[in-house]
Design a protein that fits this description.
3 helices, 60% helix, 0% strand, mainly alpha
């Protein structure tokens, strides 16, 4: 294989990887419920206009809300103990 053939194979692999990443971020953006349709369209434009930088930027902006854990393992004790120290310890 000649050097130019290897170069083209590498270039195709990089372009394919970028396209797949753009597609992944696009699908994730469309499934995200935190933006309006206009915001999603604007961000899709950025993803595909600036292939790597745009996808990385939008990917970093898609925030999944943190889980709220309500059970902290505290036991109600009537208020005589310091916070976090309950009955049964």
């Amino acid at each position: 294989m000649a050097n130019s053939e290897v170069m083209w194979l590498v270039l195709k692999a990089v372009a394919g990887t970028l396209a797949l990443f753009n597609l992944y971020v696009s699908i994730r953006l469309l499934a995200y419920g935190g933006y309006t349709s206009f915001q999603k369209m604007a961000q899709l434009f950025v993803i595909w206009l600036l292939p790597l930088a745009g996808a990385l930027l939008v990917h970093s902006l898609i925030v999944v809300p943190p889980r709220v854990e309500t059970n902290h393992g505290f036991t109600a004790d009537g208020g005589d103990n310091p916070p976090g120290v309950g009955l049964g310890h």
